[in-house]
Amino acid sequence: MATQRTQKQQQQQERIDKQLQQIQHVIVVISGKGGVGKSTVAVNLAVTLSRKNYKVGLMDADIHGPNIPKMLGIERSQLMNTGNGAKPVMYYPNLKVVSIALMLQSTDDAVIWRGPLKHRLIEQFVGDIRWGDLDYLVIDLPPGTGDEPLSVAHVLKRIDGAIIVTTPQDVALLDSRKTVTFAEKLGIPVGGIVENMSGFVCPHCGKRTDIFKTGGGEKAAQELDVPFLGRIPLDPNMVTVCDSGDPYVEKYPTSEMAQAFLRIVEQCEQW
Ligand SMILES: Nc1ncnc2c1ncn2[C@@H]1O[C@H](COP(=O)(O)OP(=O)(O)OP(=O)(O)O)[C@@H](O)[C@H]1O
Ligand SMILES: [Mg+2]
């Protein structure tokens, strides 16, 4: 029995290793706390990369709150089992998406799993998915420093950069510091900090208001001695497109936000 399990584990490891050889770069999107815009950043980063003609995979590693399929309007799609691994959902011909939400019967189903099961799922998300050749695999993580980031670090082994998403308040420093320490402990290089929800330009009068202050992310990057990747403004259109399943950078390709994502991608290209 034990030998059988070891053999199965070995085969799984071989599948994972084979898959990893086909993935050039891995980027994880992470934050100390919830609701700061990780999934938004992961989706728009993946779409910006694919608009630059890279072959991109987007892995939703948020097992309890998988939002990526809804944000891309593909929540009714399903991963297809082929007998030789599952086929990811194709958003574009060069953007493949995997999420537990694409495996559940209903969008209302809740997953109640402990660490070991989540770890096995992350292993399957790498080894049992037919990702094919990828230039970039972007991984969206749940908030904090729990099971999923640990499993992702363990299974992926080589991560090129973590993008830490934060909001502009002073407390951003506290959350970012924790996340930087966590990444360092796991041996994940910190790609840099993105300050999301940074300033709001009124669509009626054009006046800029810094609703959550400004500069917290940049200050955190300076104090923690990690790169600052840029600011993403608050934009009410973001909420609308997120809910309707259109990626913002595709719908508003000339916007300030789309430009910010292009600059983030330029920095990712250096990792
Ligand atoms: N720059 C922005 N402007 C306006 N709304 C935004 C912006 N960034 C994110 N949002 C909105 O904030 C909400 C939370 O964003 P998102 O789901 O990306 O955060 P998260 O960090 O992934 O959350 P969780 O920790 O729950 O996974 C969403 O409704 C999203 O549309
Ligand atoms: Mg999220």
Describe the protein's architecture and organization.
The termini are far apart. This protein has helices at residues 2-21, 38-51, 68-71, 115-127, 147-156, 172-185, 216-224, 236-244, 248-251, 256-268; strands spanning 23-30, 56-60, 80-81, 86-87, 89-92, 95-99, 134-140, 161-166, 190-201, 208-209, 228-234. The longest helix is centred in the first third of the chain and has 20 residues, at 2-21. Strands 1, 2, 5, 6, 7, 8, 9, 10 and 11 form a nine-stranded mixed beta sheet that branches. Strands 3-4 form a two-stranded antiparallel ribbon. 41% of the residues lie in helices and 22% in strands. The protein is built from ten helices and eleven strands. The model has no long low-confidence stretch (mean pLDDT 92). It has one domain: Rossmann fold, CATH 3.40.50. The chain has 271 residues and is α/β, with parallel strands linked by helices. It binds adenosine-5'-triphosphate and magnesium ion. Adenosine-5'-triphosphate (ATP) is lined by residues 31, 34-40, 62, 65, 67, 142-143, 196-197, 232, 234-235, 238-239, 242. Binds and transfers iron-sulfur (Fe-S) clusters to target apoproteins. Can hydrolyze ATP. This is Iron-sulfur cluster carrier protein. Belongs to the Mrp/NBP35 ATP-binding proteins family.
